[in-house]
Write a structure and sequence with these properties.
The structure is a homodimer of 259-residue chains. Chain A has 259 residues and is α+β, with helices and mostly antiparallel strands. The first copy, chain A, has seven helices and 15 strands. The mean pLDDT of chain A is 96.
């Protein structure tokens, strides 16, 4: 059964990204106060206001939809349709003035992410894609590239600190076999994978709001995103994620991670 | 004696960045072929053409000036005035479609970098600064920020792989004491330091074309850039570099690096 993502869903998703982007642009490079959350990750008024604006728009347009948001928690998370929000993925980049952060907006249907937006409001780049909705960047179709051999793969991760213990060993095993390993691109790395310029993104300790939107975009661009063991991500949280543009690279990377 | 950076020098520097930017924009996200240089770092036709265009403009406008370029080597490196060029600093970012790379153009007078440009041709950001030429971003003045205490410092480095042996130990000693450590910003991290959003950049194995332009911009923005032991960089190469917006953070970081 195909998932009924409608033109209304897509239009609402764009409006949510428009609203968050306007707020984030206002605060970018303005020395906003930075608070430490309980998990020691930083948050600013821009994160909070952007998610607030998105939630208000959802409440007005689709009051029966659920919401899972990074900053303001969950409401009706068991609804048929649930929006999964990260107003600023890459707050560390945002607070240092580096436009590789993004606003992540996903729409999940019965526990599966079926529509995603990665919005970079400073460079003015918006990736969107989902079930029945081919991936695009600012309206121009994007597609993953072929990468049959790990030895040719360009891999990104946000930061080495996200890998601990045996996860770190697995990450080292994988990255020893790729062409290039780079850090620091936040959600932008997944968007570049959807556009065919990155082959693998491998990360740990991701929350549902970190992976739901990028998964939908990458799958709509022809790629694959799973947990490290190949399991479907669904709306799981605290998960290690492996994204690939080419299924052959994905299979080889899973094998390297498993050791 | 003040160094006679003239309006003509500044105008020529802008023309060089205009020319390289036009070439780089043409190749950005176009799947250019990537060659491995003898040091295993990647290079593309965009790197080579951009530096060629810059060199041709210098040869026409200032034939007595020397040139030290990453891709096409040195000419008259003992001249009174020497241009130091890195057409694409951050080629790994460039080839993966991530606009944190930059074109670095420095003018050195008698072995000292006195004018620098950091140009990001995709986001359209150009930092310039030098002796007697206050730092600016697209014409708007920029300034480093105060950071008296290492514990509040946001630190960037390009990649962990640049630190080996005792340098890695020193880097770990320093970064254990800062608020936040991030990778992957290339020369953009130095520009963000000049703009007052980053407090420290700490790197190793930098060539003269990696540090000459960013040093001039940061010093013109009120910051300080030296070798790890505090020595003036001059036109040294294969050097470990410490940049700071605040002299107090610089002194404390030097101490942490020394152990």
């Amino acid at each position: 059964m195909s998932t009924p993502v409608t033109a209304d869903h897509v239009a609402l998703a764009h409006r949510l990204a428009d609203a968050s982007g306007a707020i984030i642009r206002r605060y970018f490079r303005t020395h906003v106060a930075v608070d430490d959350k309980s998990d020691a990750s930083p948050v600013t008024i821009a994160d909070r206001e952007a998610e607030r604006a998105i939630r208000d728009l959802i409440a007005a347009a689709a009051p029966d939809h659920g919401i899972i948001g990074e900053e303001w928690g969950s409401e009706r998370a068991d609804a048929e349709w649930v929006w999964v929000l990260d107003p600023i993925d890459g707050t560390k980049s945002f607070i240092t003035g580096k436009p590789s952060f993004g606003t992540l907006i996903a729409l999940a249907h019965r526990g599966r992410s079926v529509l995603g937006i990665v919005d970079q409001p400073i460079t003015g780049e918006r990736w969107i894609g989902g079930v029945g909705h081919p991936a695009s960047l600012n309206g121009t179709p994007v597609r993953v590239r072929a990468c049959p051999d790990l030895r040719d793969a360009y891999l990104y991760a946000t930061e080495p600190e996200m890998f601990k213990g045996s996860d770190q060993d697995a990450f080292e095993r994988l990255t020893a076999r790729v062409k290039m390993r780079r850090y620091g691109a936040d959600c932008y790395a997944y968007a570049l994978l959807a556009s065919g310029f990155v082959d693998l993104v491998c990360e740990c300790n991701l929350k549902v709001h970190d992976h739901a939107a990028v998964s939908a975009v990458i799958e709509a661009a022809g790629g694959v995103v799973t947990a490290w063991d190949g399991a479907a991500l669904g709306l799981s949280t605290n998960v290690c994620v492996l994204a690939a543009g080419d299924r052959r690279a994905h299979a080889a990377a899973m094998k390297a991670l498993a050791g």
